[in-house]
Amino acid sequence: MLKIKNLETSYGKLKVLRRISMHVSPGEIVTIIGANGAGKTTLLNTISGLVPAASGEIQFSKENIFNLSTEKIVFMGCSLVPEGRQVFAAMSVKENLLLGGYVLHKRKQKKILDQEMEKVFELFPILKEREKQFAGTLSGGEQQMLAIGRSLMAKPKMIMMDEPSMGLAPLIVKDIFRVVRGLRDAGNTVLLVEQNAKAALGIADRGYVLETGRIIVQGPSEDLLANKDVQRAYLGREVE
Amino acid sequence: MNIELFSQYLVAGLTYGIIYSIVAIGFNIIYNTTGIINFAQGEFVMIGGMTAVTLYNFMPMPLAIAAAVIITMIIGALIEIVFIRWLVSPSVLRMIIITIGISIITREIALHVWDEKVRALPYFTGTAVTSISIGGVHISPQVIWVVGICTLVVLVLNFFFSYTLLGKQMRACSSNRNAARLCGISAKNMVTLSFVLSAGIGALAGCIVSPITYVQYDSGTGLAIKGFTVAVLGGLGNSMAAVAAGIILGVLESFSIWIMPTAFKDAISISILLLILFVRPGGIFGNKEALSLKEF
Fold first, then answer.
1. Cα diameter, chain A
2. Which of A210, B67, B80, B230 could lock onto B20 through a cystine, CB 3.0 to 4.6 A?
3. Are A65 and A95 in a shared domain?
4. Spatial strand order in the sheet of A206-211
5. With contacts defined as CB-CB under 8 Å, which chain A residues touch B181?
6. What is the ipTM of this complex?
7. How many CA atoms lie within 13 A of A149 on its CB side?
8. Does residue B42 lie in a domain region?
9. What does R_g of chain A's alpha carbons equal in angstroms?
10. B255 inside domain
11. Is B293 part of a structural domain of the chain?
């Protein structure tokens, strides 16, 4: 689904990503964990074209998307739920979802758009209740659901999520992660970036550990959970 | 002051006020999608008026106005495509200085294309001395045209932004540019569209007010200052507040004649602009929190 080779991104002279190579196969949840400032968000923003890459290769469903415009990448089926939700605050919940389905609208698939809207409402019944409310008036958890719903509306082949648990109460985080797992079970592909390493590895099939712009460890989630370095650095567990 | 004179001032104030509002809405549309003040907005008004006057020599007036609006929209699109679109993450200040440059260039070009003569379209109905009497107040039919068309523009714009997908896309871009791009919306096209829309609204305003205010190669500047004052007074980016603010400014100006010489009319709006910028930079209808989120 997604294949990245030797990807490098810099902000001015500062190299943020160094020779990143990774892949995501169809139907799996892959997580990228790491501390603040490791480059996780930059990696996702580079894949979706919001930040220009310096060098390397990015392939999405066998096509080269290196430095394509964000709009084109979204149309190819690669959606991003951005960090900090970024809902359209002064617009209603329904309008937010409608704009999320802009891709389908452009393809004149009005029927599928309606179906997707129903699916999102099924996934998050609270959004149906709040349909007419301004997105800015929703609680943090509801906004996160809306942001995920908005991305799903484009019927993406792969959905990338940037810290969906950030700033949310533990109970709601649990809910969100259950939904992410549900997405995978329904056949979706998910690339999940998280600081909450334990929860992320709990639902992911594979994981990558990012440290100061480099991938230092990778492997199946169970292996990472058992890895002593990962445990010490990211799972807050003392290893004797 | 008797009641008739009072109403007469009020009507004059309303007329000018609503013209200022339309110019202010032009500012707001571009501000919302780009975060910049387009100081060439007044030039759109001028180009609209001048083009319509020229075209009126060859075709009936409604056609001339329609053509002038379309031509100005094309000019608006060209300006955006040539000067703004290709900039890679430009700073707000840089874009504002570009629009000031565009404004000066446009004025000079207009001086060469036309000349320094003052022009005007004829009154849409009747002549300069025709008036309709409503309750003792004499109103020029042109005033009714201005108020009617401007109200229509505001209503149509409101409908456009609230109910059409294109309008929603523009609002999405102004609310959160990157999030809009992540929905597959082309933010660059929305910026071009906002220039086209502003140019069209400005041009239409230029056409309908030209019988009353006349139009000249440099008449855009004055209107732009008034429009900008109104946009700031209402709170940048808020089009409905701009209508209210425009009427407030128009009426204040109109009544100022009563206590001060006419020559001080423009000083009123500049003083109001300064006062607002010092005391309530968010505008009378704006709130502080929203302002603190903005770039400047």
1. 60
2. B230
3. no
4. A78-81, A158-162, A189-194, A29-33, A206-211, A214-220
5. 50, 70-71, 74
6. 0.91
7. 32
8. yes
9. 18
10. no
11. no
Tokens of A169: 């109460």
Domain encompassing residue A148:
87-155
Residue B276 lies in a domain: no
What CATH number does the domain containing A21 carry?
3.40.50.300
Contact B165/A105, CB-based, under 8 Å? yes
Structure tokens at B211: 């019988």
**Dist. CA A66–CA A55, nearest whole Å:** 9
A10 membership: H or E segment, kind and range: strand A2-11
d(CA B277, CA B87): 29
Query: What sign does the CA torsion over B74, B76, B80, B82 have?
Result: positive
Number of domains in chain A: 2
The tens digit of pLDDT for each residue in B81-131 reads: 999 888 877 787 888 899 999 999 999 999 999 988 888 888 888 777 778
Residue B26 structural domain: 14-219
pLDDT digits (tens, 9 = 90+) for B152-203: 998 999 899 889 999 999 989 888 889 999 999 998 999 999 999 999 999 9
Are residues A165 and A239 both part of a single domain?
yes
Q: Are both A130 and A166 inside the same structural domain?
A: no
* Residue A50 DSSP one-character state: S
pTM of the model: 0.87
Q: How far is C-alpha B62 from the chain's CA centre?
A: 20
State the DSSP string of A18-37.
Answer: EEEEEEE-TT-EEEEE--TT
d(CA B242, CA B278): 19
A166 and A49 together in one domain:
yes
User: What tokens were used for B66?
Assistant: 């329609």
Residues of chain B with Cβ-Cβ distance to A151 below 8 Å are: 182
Picking from A94, A24, A99, A118, the residue whose alpha carbon sits closest to that of residue B181 is A99
Q: Are B220 and B45 in contact (CB under 8 A)?
A: yes
> Hey, what are B100's tokens?
């000031």
Yes or no, beta carbons of B180 and A105 under 8 Å apart: no
Top residue of A42, A48, A71 to mutate, by most chain B CBs within 10 Å, is A71
Number of domains in chain B: 1
